Structures are given as structure tokens and as C-alpha cells.
Amino acid sequence: xxxxxxxxxxxxxxxxxxxxxxxxxxxxxxxxxxxxxxxxxxxxxxxxxxxxxxxxxxxxxxxxxxxxxxxxxxxxxxxxxxxxxxxxxxxxxxxxxxxxxxxxxxxxxxxxxxxxxxxxxxxxxxxxxxxxxxxxxxxxxxxxxxxxxxxxxxxxxxxxxxxxxxxxxxxxxxxxxxxxxxxxxxxxxxxxxxxxxxxxxxxxxxxxxxxxxxxxxxx
Length: 219
Ligand SMILES: O=C(O)CCC(=O)C(=O)O
Ligand SMILES: [Fe+2]
What we know:
Strand content: 25-35%
Structural class: alpha+beta
Distance between the termini: 49 Å
Domain Fe2OG dioxygenase: 112-213
Radius of gyration: 17 Å
Largest sheet: 9 strands, antiparallel
Order of helices and strands: EEEHEEEEHEEEEEEEHEEE
CATH topology: Jelly Rolls
CATH class: Mainly Beta
Shape: globular
Cofactor: L-ascorbate
Number of helices: 3
Pfam families: 2OG-FeII_Oxy_3 (PF13640)
Bound molecules: 2-oxoglutaric acid, fe (ii) ion
Oligomer: single chain
Keywords: Dioxygenase, Iron, Metal-binding, Oxidoreductase, Vitamin C
Organism: Paenibacillus albus
């Protein structure tokens, strides 16, 4: 292909940095078991141990709140019907360890990390298709990448679904799906539209880490 040829495509830079199928963070070997290249979407195994999943669920259990929209309206949102909570940064040794591992895996300093979010879906609950980046107005320090870690298996339903790519990721305890939306070509970012399909049988627990373009933490 010639330069200037309209059909010439230049592969976009990715944030995620891996060569090979195994990623070594300072305390774990994580395996890539599935991928789409553009936009980059990775299915990762062994991100969290089963014990870590259980600890995160236990710590979150009593602090969950049904999804709300609007500060004062207290109207329950139909966009997301699950319950959620956020951990404090560095809240305890387990959170600290997970935050460090996730930041190494996502190749972004921990200071760019939002607080770790826990979501709990009961049968019938779901998260309708959405973008993780903010689309309204002039966002200064937008989100650039997401890691959704599954803290439980789900007997039926509950997949993370990318409708534009027709990709469904089945929750598996300790596994995760990674995607990024930092591309110059806006159409690639838009392909990261995703949903949490309704849980049919069982309970779904996830931990979501969103990364920002710039430092986000005050400390
Ligand atoms: O529960 C899922 O599979 C999706 C969660 C999600 O999209 C999010 O936390 O932003
Ligand atoms: Fe999302």
C-alpha cells in the first residue's frame, strides 16, 4: 500500500503492553486466553486468586447500595439495576495488593486509578449498554481503560456483552476482561460499547477498575 492511499491503515498504539501470552506482574502470572486487536480486548485468566475474590465480596457485602441516578432525586436507575460500592484507596492490605497488580497489568500508574468498584447482580439484574468514558461536554481527565474482574462464576447469563462486536465474555471466578478506548480513531472507542447481560441463575459479582488519562488521586 502507498502512503496517501485512502485504504492504508496504521495500527493504533495500545496502552496494554505485552509480548507473549503470559503477563508477569510482581506477584502473579496472568494468562491471555482470548483477544480482539482493534479495539484491544483481552480475556485474562488468573488475575485474582479465589481467596482474593472471596475477601473482596466479604468486604463489600454490607456496604452495597442499589444504583441511583442524580444526586438529590434518589431515583433508582434502570441503566444499571445491580448494587454497588467503592473501596477507599489503599483501604487494607488486600485492596492495596490488588490495586498494585492491576496497575502493573494495565500499564498505568496507580495514581491514575479510580477507586475499585464492586457490583453485585441478582437474577434479573443487568447493566444496559454503555461506554465507560464520559461523553458529555469537555471532559478534562477522561477514562482510558477498564478491567472488569469476575469474583464469582454465574450459572446462567451475566455475560459482559459487546454488542457492536457481538462478543460475550462469560464470568469466571478470578478471570477478567480488559479493554481500552484511548484511540485517535473515535470509531474504535465506540466499539467498546458494552453491557452486563441479565443474570438468569445465580449471583454475579465483579470488581471494576477504571483508569484515567492523568493522575486522579489526591494522595
Ligand atoms: O458487569 C459487567 O459485566 C459490566 C460491568 C461494567 O460495564 C462496568 O462496571 O463498567
Ligand atoms: Fe462498563
